[in-house]
Amino acid sequence: VQLQASGGGLVQAGGSLRLSCTASTNIFKYINMAWFRQAPGKERERVASITTSGSTNYADSVKGRFTISRDNAQNTMYLQMNSLKPEDTAVYYCLLDNKLWGQGTKVTVSS
């Protein structure tokens, strides 16, 4: 199984980005997924997670600004990020079933 993350880039504070993570598996709908991020010099932290039934959970720092979702038909998970802040700058990683990491996509928010 491989994970392909995309959608990162440079955006001004207050802007939006949507990250995507596509898995090469036909059992995607049975797998819990999550987004993590790692800022320079900091530990990797969980941003949001979504279960097979669609239940979601968010870090306090992104509640109300980020939305995690999934499209099982496309084997893809998304992270809609709104009202971005400079402190959201990090490499964002997707995690499949608490086991497999994607390659990361870089998000830079300028002030």
Question: How would you characterize this protein structure?
Answer:
With 111 residues, the protein is an all-beta fold. Helix content is 0%, strand content 51%. It has strands at residues 3-6, 9-12, 17-23, 33-38, 45-50, 56-58, 66-71, 76-81, 90-96, 100-101, 105-110. The strands form two sheets. Strands 2, 4, 5, 6, 9, 10 and 11 form a seven-stranded mixed beta sheet that branches. A hairpin with a 6-residue loop joins strand 4 (33-38) and strand 5. The chain is globular, with a radius of gyration of 13 Å. The chain starts with a strand and ends with a strand. The mean pLDDT is 95.
Indicate the radius of gyration in whole angstroms: 13 Å
Share of helical residues? under 10%
Percent in strands = over 45%
> How would you sum up the major sheet?
7 strands, mixed
Distance between the termini: 38 Å
What ranges have pLDDT less than 50 throughout 5 or more consecutive residues? none
* Number of beta-strand segments: 11
Mean pLDDT, rounded to whole units? 95
Key words describing this protein structure:
seven-stranded mixed β-sheet; single chain; mainly beta; 111 residues
TL;DR of this structure?
This protein is mainly beta. 0% of the residues lie in helices and 51% in strands.
SSE order and pairing:
Layout: E1 3-6, E2 9-12, E3 17-23, E4 33-38, E5 45-50, E6 56-58, E7 66-71, E8 76-81, E9 90-96, E10 100-101, E11 105-110
Parallel strand pairs: 2-11
Antiparallel strand pairs: 1-3, 3-8, 4-5, 4-9, 5-6, 7-8, 9-10, 9-11
